[in-house]
Amino acid sequence: MWAKYLNAAIPKTLKIGGIRAASSLVPGEPSEPKIVTTEIPGPKSRSLINDLDTVTQSGSVQLFADYEKSLGNYLMDVDGNAFLDVYMQISSIPIGYNHPEMLKVFKDENNLKALVNRPALGSFPGEHWPNKLRDVLLSISPGLPNVMTMMCGSCSNENAYKCLFIAYQKHQRGEKIDFSDIEKESCLINEAPGAPKLSLLSFFGAFHGRTMGTLSTTHSKAIHKIDIPAFDWPIAPFPKYRYPLEENARENQAEDARCLEQVEELIEQYRKKGVPVAGIVIEPIQSEGGDNEASPEFFQKLQRIAKKHGAGFLIDEVQTGAGATGKMWCHEHFNLDSPPDIVTFSKKMLTGGFYHALDQRPQQPYRVYNTWLGDPGKLLLLESFLKVLKQQNLLDQVNRSGAILKSGLLELEKDFPFLLNSVRGRGTFLAVNAASPSLRDQMVAGLKKKGIMSGGCGDHSIRLRPALTFQEHHANIFLDRLRQLLTEIK
Amino acid sequence: MWAKYLNAAIPKTLKIGGIRAASSLVPGEPSEPKIVTTEIPGPKSRSLINDLDTVTQSGSVQLFADYEKSLGNYLMDVDGNAFLDVYMQISSIPIGYNHPEMLKVFKDENNLKALVNRPALGSFPGEHWPNKLRDVLLSISPGLPNVMTMMCGSCSNENAYKCLFIAYQKHQRGEKIDFSDIEKESCLINEAPGAPKLSLLSFFGAFHGRTMGTLSTTHSKAIHKIDIPAFDWPIAPFPKYRYPLEENARENQAEDARCLEQVEELIEQYRKKGVPVAGIVIEPIQSEGGDNEASPEFFQKLQRIAKKHGAGFLIDEVQTGAGATGKMWCHEHFNLDSPPDIVTFSKKMLTGGFYHALDQRPQQPYRVYNTWLGDPGKLLLLESFLKVLKQQNLLDQVNRSGAILKSGLLELEKDFPFLLNSVRGRGTFLAVNAASPSLRDQMVAGLKKKGIMSGGCGDHSIRLRPALTFQEHHANIFLDRLRQLLTEIK
Predict the structure, then answer these.
(1) For chain B, what is the domain count?
(2) What is the uppermost EC class here (chains A, B) (predicted)?
(3) Residues A404 and A460 in one domain
(4) Is B174 contained in some domain?
């Protein structure tokens, strides 16, 4: 393992804590994980969890972190443990903890003022806002000319869904721009025609958020949805592939065809039911649902089906976006006929929001609007992240680190076939299945004790979501510790 | 007018721009508004609006602000105009622009790190998080023991609604804690019993947000709702009072009774329909819908009706909370039998979130959860705001400034009875009706030209939402310019 890392030809080495380490993109990082407590969470974390539980539901807390000391790819906790973090706050820290460039942003007094005087951006934006939208957000747009900023993934999708409905109804109305009195009156009492019976088609295993519109398109885990009313909207099967892909091409093509057929049937069924499909929403890789991939051909055909039926096509890049797949947007791997109608983002993008085609832009103001419409402070952090991404060629870094990670995982899968299978993913956005849900949980916990913070997804997968500054030597540390763990479990 | 202001007995005076002004709570504020362009938006703003329109729907933009120069109660725009701002970014700036204490927050390196290393608070909170929730948020709780942080008003309400549904179903299940297989399976396909047919009762004129759950409880303006599918949930009338209240006590009591009767009828009707009401959601003052008030007795009785029918009682203080009514929470004016089950907040609170009773706390983790669960940086700003609020007795300030504003508005209403009516509100959270929607629009535009930034609500009201640092002398400037305008219009 280590030979591979030493071959990575990194120019300088640092000596930290007595161990020679490859030079890190974030200087001062620990050279390896360090675990000092016998249990994780350690005693200080456990005591803080008990404390937190008196003021809020805290059952999901894994440990208490020390964000003053965390650095780069290393998450420190309050008990003095140092984890190599391949999960990064559920895929939401783009270039590691306390990145020096990110810490600089608000030393600039004008940036600080933009943060503190948070405006109602839809009504009173600051002078620099149009340029920031253009130079920061649109500079990395996947071919779409307009953008709206939002707060988080759920609200980005909620508002993008509204654009899909609005655009669909615009086409139904044809030339007529204004609304009828009956539309205006009926919408206020939640009734058609003003609040029309329309639907969005989503996929089994999908996760698009937890607010009530997005939750109606989320089908990954029961605990997210139970007891919450939902819209009756169509749900299509998402391809379930056999791995390795190259050995199962024919079966997987048939699986694509089966799913696409169901999509068309559901569109037809809901049209007949009087609840037409205004849009199709899909993740390029189903993330919370288990890192389920679908082929470029699947996405190409799906987009054509959407077009054919006059439904908008929304790709949710909340988790996949911002570089971790080795391209800025995961769907850029798919070679689509044209850009999707809407692409939503959040997490590593730091600000939520969505890119959209002009056809998806509401003709009237105040339809997709809210008090804040995002947060200028987050866009300033994104600007800093993108500068680092460009200067350090982080997309190349992701592809290099991802190649090592993936080949290492494939090797492990071969060496431990009864424990691991179905290695998959792009860039460092990778996953592997454990043989069972309980083994998966055991592995995530076991990795933690070896100083690796990873995450589960679906019911038996482990997902990797490192920062874009995750390097070859980090990959090798991860693979090394995972091999140790598998050897112990075996 | 000015005599009143001089009597306000403020200790020191400052000389700014040649005019003697009372000492401002935010030193360095302009002494009065200054308008230098003939049109508003001015030429620089207009050019920026055209620019912005190429990248996003910008029809709602009023002007471009200069947040580097804005200070205290004064909003500066890019054309050099200085407005006395009684609207404050739709009621969301608590103590004015560039408040020196707020600008200090992120000079502290550890605060800066808390901002930049934004954690997944439900999984890896920082060491100080339990104390921050307790010392900052719960220190001003309206009698509720638990709190969850969220991002914005819509998502605070969305997640609070989920708590209402979850708590309602918990009571239906009785002792049984775990879910049945049929519940787990059906919820994933948006079907009962897992995704149950439940409803929330809301009111005509209400505004609770723009995501699809909250939008189903919003009934203020058609433009917010048109073309968006909605849940079939019951909508009750909100009292419409005659003013002045003291001369119309009997009619207004009858109005309360009529509305409450409808509430009970709707609960019964939706129970029979198989869509029981899991909760009642209401604003203490309907804000976007026109600053519609209801009496303390109305709220007391409404809470009792909710209890009687096993429905949760949620008060949405997103716009009314954080001191502007002269109490921290507007519903504290109502002398309720007990605290509401849930109180939601955002806007001037800087962080979104909700307080809740223990009964509303989900027993299982991950049910009300998302990646970020708020933002520690916003809580640090809130901490700073609350320190200033306490040190400067801003609730007293609000009551003093509000008294001057209200008596001044009542005087104007008497002097211009064909233009103004129905002055109402608490603290500085005040509104007045114009005789017609077009007159209202004319007045908001006219005030802008006189250097006053105000806002409309409902179809013919003007709402005042100044910062808590809005003082007696600001009130007098506002009243003075409004009188000038009314004289000109008359």
Answers:
(1) 2
(2) transferase
(3) yes
(4) yes
B232's tokens? 């079939």
Residues B264 and B399 in one domain: no
Do A332 and A412 sit in the same domain of this protein? no
Do B229 and B354 reside in the same domain of the chain? Answer: yes
Chain A within 8 Å of B130 (Cβ-Cβ)? yes
In which domain, by residue range, is B419 found?
393-431
Residues B401 and B348 occupy one common structural domain? no
Residue where a domain stops, chosen among A345, A374, A403: A374
* Nearest-Cα residue of chain B relative to residue A115: B103
Q: What is the DSSP letter of A135?
A: I
Among B81, B86, B228, B355, most A C-beta atoms within 10 A, so best to mutate, is B228
A62 and A166 share one domain? no
Q: Assess if residue B7 is contained within a domain.
A: no
User: What pLDDT is recorded for position A400?
Assistant: 98
Question: Does residue A189 fall inside a structural domain?
Answer: yes
Q: B17-46 pLDDT, tens per residue?
A: 434 456 889 899 999 999 999 999 999 999
Asked if the Cβ–Cβ distance from A147 to B199 is below 8 Å, we say no
Residue A362: band (very low, low, confident or very high) from pLDDT cuts 50, 70, 90: very high
Parallel, antiparallel, or unpaired: how do β-strands B199-203 and B235-236 relate? parallel
* 3 state SS of B59: coil
Q: Which of B64, B154, B165 sits opposite A126 (nearest CB)?
A: B64
Residues B226 and B322 in one domain: yes
The yes-or-no verdict on residue B11 having pLDDT over 50 is: no
Q: What is the CA radius of gyration of chain B?
A: 23
pLDDT (0 to 100) of residue A102: 97
Q: Is residue B485 part of a domain?
A: no
- Coil/strand/helix, residue B98: coil
The encoded tokens of residue B97 equal: 């622009």
Q: What is the pLDDT of residue A15?
A: 41
C-alpha B432/C-alpha B407 separation (Å) is: 12
Q: Which of A64, A106, A207, A429 is catalytic?
A: A207
Please tell me whether residue B200 adopts helix, strand or coil conformation: strand
Inform me whether the pLDDT recorded for B398 exceeds 70.
yes
pLDDT band at residue B9 using 50, 70 and 90 as cut-offs: very low
Q: In the A/B pair of chains, how many CB contacts fall below 8 A?
A: 386
Together in a domain, A225 and A352: yes
Paired tokens of B473: 């002398």
Backbone angles phi, psi at A314, to 5 degrees: -110, 125
Confidence at residue A201, expressed as pLDDT on a 0 to 100 scale: 98
Span B112-146, pLDDT tens digits = 999 999 999 999 999 999 999 999 999 999 999 99
The β-bridge partners of A201 are A280
Q: Is the pLDDT of residue B6 over 60?
A: no
The interface predicted TM-score (ipTM) is 0.95
Domain CATH number, residue A221: 3.40.640.10
3-state secondary structure of A460: coil
Residue A143: which region, alpha, beta or left (left: phi > 0; alpha: psi -120 to 50)? Answer: left
Q: Is A480 a catalytic residue?
A: no
- Find, in chain A, the residue whose alpha carbon is nearest to that of B352: A151
**Residue A448 is part of a domain; what is its CATH number?**
3.90.1150.10
| CB contacts, 8 Å: B227 with chain A | 162, 165-166, 168-169, 187, 194-196, 367
Distance CA A321, CA A329 (A): 5
